[in-house]
Design goal:
With 698 residues, the protein is mainly beta. The chain has five domains: 139 residues, Glucose Permease (Domain IIA); 156 residues, Immunoglobulin-like (Sandwich), CATH 2.60.40; 104 residues, Chondroitinase Ac, Chain A, domain 3, CATH 2.60.220; 88 residues, Immunoglobulin-like (Sandwich); 138 residues, Glutaredoxin (3-Layer(aba) Sandwich), CATH 3.40.30. It is 11% helix and 41% strand. The chain has seven helices and 52 strands. Strands 1, 4, 5, 6, 7, 8, 9, 10, 11, 12 and 13 form an eleven-stranded antiparallel β-sheet that branches. Strands 14, 15, 17, 18, 21 and 22 form a six-stranded antiparallel β-sheet that branches. The protein is elongated, with a radius of gyration of 34 Å. The two termini are 65 Å apart. Bound molecules: zinc ion. The site of zinc ion has 5 residues, from loops.
Length: 698
């Protein structure tokens, strides 16, 4: 009995453990190759997830890594694009970004939300039950949406309690194949007067000797981590530097909070940082929790002339590691001016004032204590209103800049906009808080603030050949030029009814999605766009729309007379594969080439269960002549009433020498033994059409 009891307890313990343990599967099917790692250095932030390569293409299956519920769906033209947040009962949330499309049950919901709000972008959080998903369930297809620079899956695992991102590699230690150790690349030595030397950490050498010209110095060191059979250089998991027992630097990419991500600027050499080059030691103002050592300093000072040895170790999350020793000697105390105290807790609040302008720098905003920052009125020279100098200094916390309202034009204030330019002259729009007397800006870097008046509307230009017919499911593209305040809002409609459209900032295009079931007709497609200052533009496009029959559904029935005047119909071909090919006109060059190619291969086709039916709007008599002249052995349907060409969506407006007329589009449809449409060949290769048809079914 005692045995049974303890056995029952044992079982119970297993059950509890199984319920609470988090053992996620990978979010993609193929072996995982990373093009980006957690904690990697990006512009003003640490990378908060891993980037999984998808072979340069979109459309990979994306799977929920554990059982859970979809808590949030976010769709944006920028940043993470189309993103899904799945909450798991073990206290983690997995995040999947830059997706192309969601699985059907999620996409149906997204479609209905977009229809209801009549807008593309959304951010929906589901309280209560959410949408349940199983472990390994396909939840989306990978894509390239938002600010992505090529198809991939950005994937995160967060702590559900506080949304802090964790390094996903920690959960997949055995599942990411890698036996290559991370390496050190270029090592640069800096002293207070600037660069003092450049060294290469070649793989063979364990010790790198350097002599500094001054007694105080710091390094920047490039790190990179190759993964087996990958080809991407990623950022390693852990970096540590020690001198005897003193840890000068220890970075471990395990977790951080999003608001702390800004401290990346104190981890690299600014204003210009080299690819994945880390500043050692870390600056005093850098309080990033990824840093596990308490030592922070602008410089390390060696005030005697002894050689000192700094051992450095870098490893990936699989434990592959590389070790080196940096050996350094200085001239000792000969430059007393360089002797800089090691500062661990800097600075108090600072308020800089000049002619009514103010910059407030909170304590701990500056990474380095010795930077002298000043504020200068711009005197409205080329619309500059104020400058915070020197340029190129980032802040760990935002600083506040006040500009008196009377320093910028007061008329047309609704069209007034501000930009800040950085050390490279790059201008970014900034939106101030407006008080009774001031415009108040929050800045994360020194810069110059400019104003401008935006009264210019966005310029719209259709990129679509308006003589062509549009099919249900097509995407219409419109180019936009907006020089000043940026796109604020937009709306597309077809015959005055809202239709889904998306702003694509990477290409400066609007994409208008033509509904699948649009049907045949003449339509007016309208797009209206506003910039953020309310200047509007609109474009109207007149088009003819049409539907192809849907693949996977019963092909539209047809019947009529063939070249011999016999009645034929789709019905009578049940049990055979049907190649239904549409062509413009009997006895014209392209049509003859296509017909003759099918004639020459006809016996092969019939032997493998095919029937061939050609369709044009010519008469029975015309078909008879055409068939006789070229000895065509298959049916030619005379569709004089245009019932079949319209049912298959191939009766379209064409133009020749500027003249517009209606005609038959050359397209082929493959129908299976049960009358189901299985394939449409849009671009027919007339001379090799038989081969093209057979290849299409491979
Ligand atoms: Zn990413």
């Amino acid at each position: 009995m005692k045995f049974l009891l303890s056995f029952a307890f044992f079982l119970f313990a297993i059950l509890v453990f199984a319920q609470s343990s988090f053992s996620p599967v990978l979010p993609v099917d193929s072996p995982v190759y990373l093009s980006g790692t957690f904690g990697e250095i990006r512009s003003h932030h640490f990378h908060s997830g891993i980037d999984i390569r998808t072979g340069g293409v979109e459309g990979w299956n994306v799977r929920s890594i554990e059982k859970g519920v979809v808590r949030r769906i976010k769709i944006s033209s920028y940043g993470n694009g189309k993103a899904l947040y799945v909450e798991h009962p073990q206290g983690y949330t997995s995040v999947y970004c830059h997706l192309r499309v969601f699985s059907k049950k999620i996409q149906d919901l997204v479609d209905s939300i977009q229809r209801k709000q009549e807008f593309f972008e959304l951010d929906t959080v589901f309280t209560g039950a959410g949408i349940p998903v199983e472990k390994s369930e396909m939840i989306a297809l990978s894509g390239n949406s938002g600010g992505s620079e090529g198809p991939h899956l950005h994937f995160e695992i967060r702590d559900s309690k506080n949304e802090e991102p964790l390094n996903p590699e920690i959960f997949y230690r055995g599942k990411i194949v890698d036996s290559i150790s991370p390496v050190m690349g270029v090592i640069r030595l800096f002293v207070p007067s600037g660069l003092d030397g450049t060294f290469r950490a070649s793989p063979g050498r364990d010790t790198i000797e350097m002599e500094a010209s001054r007694s105080c110095f710091y390094w920047t060191i490039q790190f990179s981590d190759d993964q087996t059979r990958n080809g991407n250089q990623n950022f390693p998991y852990e970096i540590e530097m020690k001198e005897n027992q003193v840890s000068w630097f220890h970075l471990k990419n395990d977790r951080f909070a999003f608001w702390q991500s800004r401290w990346v600027d104190g981890t690299v050499q600014y204003p210009k940082s080299e690819f994945q080059a880390i500043r050692i030691p870390a600056l005093p103002g850098n309080r990033m929790p990824l840093l596990k050592t308490s030592n922070r300093a602008e410089y390390i000072c060696q005030l005697d002339t002894q050689w000192k040895h700094y051992s450095i170790r870098v490893s990936d999350s699989r434990g592959n590691e590389t070790k080196k020793v940096l050996t350094i000697r200085t001239p000792g105390k000969e430059h007393p001016a360089d002797t800089i105290a090691l500062i661990s807790s800097p600075i108090s609040d600072k308020s800089l004032k000049n002619e009514g302008f103010e910059a407030f720098i909170p304590k701990e905003a500056q990474y380095e204590t010795r930077e002298e920052i000043a504020i200068y009125p711009g005197k409205n020279i080329s619309k500059a209103v104020v400058a915070i100098m020197p340029l190129g200094i980032p802040f760990a916390l935002p600083i506040t800049v006040r500009v008196p309202k009377n320093q910028v034009p007061t008329e047309l204030s609704r069209k007034l906009m501000f930009m800040v330019s950085d050390h490279q002259g790059k201008r970014t729009i900034v939106i101030p808080k407006i008080t009774e007397t001031d415009y108040v800006f929050s800045l994360r870097e020194t810069g110059m603030i400019y104003w401008d008046i935006d009264t210019v509307s966005p310029e719209l230009k259709s990129l679509f050949d308006e003589t062509r017919v549009i099919y249900g499911g097509d995407t219409l593209k419109v180019q936009v030029k907006e020089m000043l305040s940026g796109i604020g809002s937009y709306r597309a409609s077809i015959d005055n009814k809202w239709v889904l459209s998306e702003y694509e900032p990477r290409s400066n295009q609007f994409w208008i999605f033509i509904p699948k079931n649009i049907g045949m007709g003449n339509r007016v497609i309208q797009l209206k766009a506003w910039d953020t200052k309310g200047n509007a533009s609109e474009i109207k496009i007149k088009l003819r729309t049409m539907n192809h029959p849907e693949i996977g559904k019963s092909a539209p029935a047809f019947n009529g007379k063939n070249q011999k005047g016999e009645d034929i119909s789709l019905e009578q071909f049940k049990g055979k594969k049907v190649l239904l090919y549409f062509y413009p006109k009997d006895d014209t060059p392209g049509c003859t080439a296509e017909a003759c190619n099918l004639r020459d291969n006809y016996s092969t086709l019939t032997a493998t269960g095919w029937e061939v039916v050609g369709v044009s709007t010519d008469s029975v008599k015309s078909h008879d002549k055409f068939a006789a002249k070229f000895e065509l052995p298959f049916h030619l349907l005379a569709d004089e009433e245009k019932k079949t060409v319209e049912a298959y969506g191939v009766w379209v407006e064409k133009s020749m020498y500027g003249r517009k007329y209606m005609g038959t589009d050359r397209k082929s449809f493959i129908i299976d033994e049960n009358g189901v449409l299985i394939k449409i060949i849009e671009k027919v290769d007339t001379k090799n059409h038989t081969q093209q048809v057979l290849d299409a079914l491979k």
